[in-house]
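User: Can you recover a sequence for this backbone? Please restate the input before giving your answer.

Assistant: Of course. Working from this structure:
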């Protein structure tokens, strides 16, 4: 009887306090994303690279950027991976009661100027109609792209996140600007002279920004705000497990997948967060 009791006690102790080979030692980290970024993170969650770092990820698809950030700041998402530094900065400015921070950089998705009628920006004629996004941060980014291409001039204090067409100081070609839902860009290419389209939307529409655009962004001091990030709530800024996700993203296995899957249109950026500020 004594021996049987001892065995029972050992079994109970082992079940309640021991760690079996199947025990999940790491907390599951909930990642929020959307569009092509959601595809990336679904793959990452199942990757061998994640297993090697003992990271257990659950990926949720939320189609609205503000809702993604709300959920992250409120804690129903641990981190999110879908936005640029400038998008997060704008969110923080517009939502004073919340604070998100960047854990690290991921990649740069060049915004492009597309046209079915012209092969380079200088060919776009006077009085042409150029479509830009109606989303504030995307519209501002598009206007900066047009200035970079030499088509317009903007105020010297133009805000990279909230600037509008009213901030144009020189429009020598008298272009007309048509604001559109960014997701419709590829579909209206034939009805306007040129369209500015974000990379993820362009890719979904069968366009490669590096091959099909007539002009696109490059990474420099004026565009670094548009580098994509992994974001979390301020209180989690120094969470070691969350920071491992940045290392995971930049692993060779994941970068090979992203390059092949998206035809190298998501350009890896491995920079410290301080570079963005």
């Amino acid at each position: 009887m004594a021996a049987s009791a001892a065995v029972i006690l050992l079994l109970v102790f082992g079940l309640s306090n021991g760690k079996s080979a199947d025990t999940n030692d790491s907390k599951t980290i909930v990642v929020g994303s959307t569009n092509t970024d959601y595809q990336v993170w679904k793959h990452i969650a199942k990757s061998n690279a994640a297993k090697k770092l003992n990271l257990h990820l659950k990926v949720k698809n939320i189609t609205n950027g503000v809702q993604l950030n709300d959920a992250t700041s409120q804690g129903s998402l641990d981190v999110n991976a879908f936005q640029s530094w400038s998008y997060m900065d704008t969110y923080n400015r517009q939502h004073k009661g919340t604070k998100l921070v960047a854990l690290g950089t991921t990649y740069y998705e060049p915004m492009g100027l597309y046209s079915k009628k012209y092969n380079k920006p200088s060919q776009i004629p006077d009085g042409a109609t150029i479509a830009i996004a109606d989303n504030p941060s995307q519209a501002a980014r598009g206007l900066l792209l047009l200035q970079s291409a030499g088509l317009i001039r903007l105020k010297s204090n133009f805000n990279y996140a909230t600037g509008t067409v009213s901030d144009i100081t020189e429009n020598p070609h008298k272009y007309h600007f048509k604001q559109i839902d960014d997701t419709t860009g590829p579909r209206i290419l034939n009805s306007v002279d040129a369209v500015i389209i974000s990379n993820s939307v362009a890719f979904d529409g069968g366009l490669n920004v590096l091959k099909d655009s007539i002009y696109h962004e490059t990474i420099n001091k004026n565009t670094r705000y548009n580098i994509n990030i992994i974001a979390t709530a301020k209180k989690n800024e120094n969470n070691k497990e969350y920071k491992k996700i940045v290392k995971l993203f930049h692993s060779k296995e994941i970068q090979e997948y992203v390059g092949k899957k998206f035809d190298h249109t998501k350009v890896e950026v491995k920079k410290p967060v301080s570079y963005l500020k």
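That completes the design. The two ends are 71 Å apart (CA to CA).
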